[in-house]
Amino acid sequence: MFLRHLSLVNYKNFDSKDLEFDPVINCLVGDNGVGKTNILDAIYHLCFGKSYFNPVSTQNIKHDTEFFMVDGEFEKEGRSEKIICSFKKGTKKVIKRNGKPYEKFSEHIGFLPLVIISPADRDLILEGSDTRRKFIDGVISQSDKAYLNNLIKYNKVLVQRNSLLKYFVANRTFERDTLSIYNEQLHGLGTEIHKKRLDFISSFVPIFKEQYQHISDKEEQIMLSYESQLEEGSLLELLEANIEKDRALQYTSVGIHKDDLNFTIADHPIKKFGSQGQQKSFLIALKLAQFHFIKEQASTTPILLLDDIFDKLDESRVSHIVGLVKNDNFGQIFISDTHAERTENVVKNIHQSYKIFTL
Ligand SMILES: Nc1ncnc2c1ncn2[C@@H]1O[C@H](COP(=O)(O)OP(=O)(O)OP(=O)(O)O)[C@@H](O)[C@H]1O
């Protein structure tokens, strides 16, 4: 699968832009702030219906204009697929595949698998657990529609249960039976999600460790483990046991929405004890493992976006990553960098077709 053509209208810093891509390697080079990352983000938008960097849709519209449009022509399994993602202020975002709008964006997720490696990934280590849950959910959802649907349903029920807890306090009332209905729904959906997360972690960890060994020269004991309150008991039991606490807090304090991933090096949290280099290698290994996992599950090689990759790694490691496309037939890769020469040196050595775009 690859992206053949990209057209932008009023997308971030671009009025209009048309790019015809190479099926294998594409390099976007230029000074800071010219819009290299914005082009990668537009590609991300076509695959996920949203920005990787800025979730506020209005802020993805070029300043002082009213709408944006991102139009991409992909080739997938020998067929041309035209995806258009557009957004006008005050209306709902629209994604169309070959002229037909999707009713639910979730139907589009996984159709065009993509992995991005960016300096913004550091949030996975530095920020709260929701960032890491989004990561697991993002990886599983790209190859498992049922998981994504359960997750959407779980989040809806969770919002309803939280509203009910607030309603009880505001109206000085309490109805255990109504709450029990939500508990059962959360239990059913949450248990499924928990099981899939467990299965995912057990197949993902070996891939992740292998990727880390590839990019780190040293033997280091790194680990990624899954933490869930559901290890303590069934979700139904936990919800029932925490009813008084939830009434006081006015929100649901237990469930798979509290799950987390632990990242460690030599049994200590990498956030506090990992060097900058170790943290960078850890994040790249995480994303490369995502690439390999999705490739296996979805039987399509994901598009790989490498944003500012030299900010993270030296040339030999970048060569290793770019070399992935050499071994993975039909993979397409996009690289952004401020130094045209450095990028060209790396891609020339891969002996694959490539294009360099100077912005
Ligand atoms: N909604 C918007 N309207 C207009 N310009 C925008 C909008 N959002 C972002 N920009 C501009 O886009 C530019 C940043 O683009 P981008 O992050 O793609 O740069 P880059 O080439 O990747 O830079 P770097 O090499 O520093 O990573 C900034 O100048 C920013 O002001």
TrEMBL record:
Any GO BP annotation: SOS response
Binding site residues for ATP: 30-37
Any one cellular-component term (Gene Ontology): cytoplasm
Gene3D superfamilies: P-loop containing nucleotide triphosphate hydrolases (3.40.50.300), RecF/RecN/SMC, N-terminal domain (1.20.1050.90)
Major location (coarse): cytoplasm
Keyword DNA-binding in annotation: yes
Keyword 4Fe-4S: no
Subcellular location: Cytoplasm
Residues covered by the RecF/RecN/SMC N-terminal domain: 3-349
Any Pfam family hit: SMC_N
Keywords: ATP-binding, Cytoplasm, DNA damage, DNA repair, DNA replication, DNA-binding, Nucleotide-binding, SOS response
Molecular function (Gene Ontology), one example: single-stranded DNA binding
Similarity comment: family membership: Belongs to the RecF family.
Protein role: The RecF protein is involved in DNA metabolism; it is required for DNA replication and normal SOS inducibility. RecF binds preferentially to single-stranded, linear DNA. It also seems to bind ATP.
HAMAP family: RecF
Name of the molecule in the record: DNA replication and repair protein RecF
Protein's organism: Flagellimonas sediminis
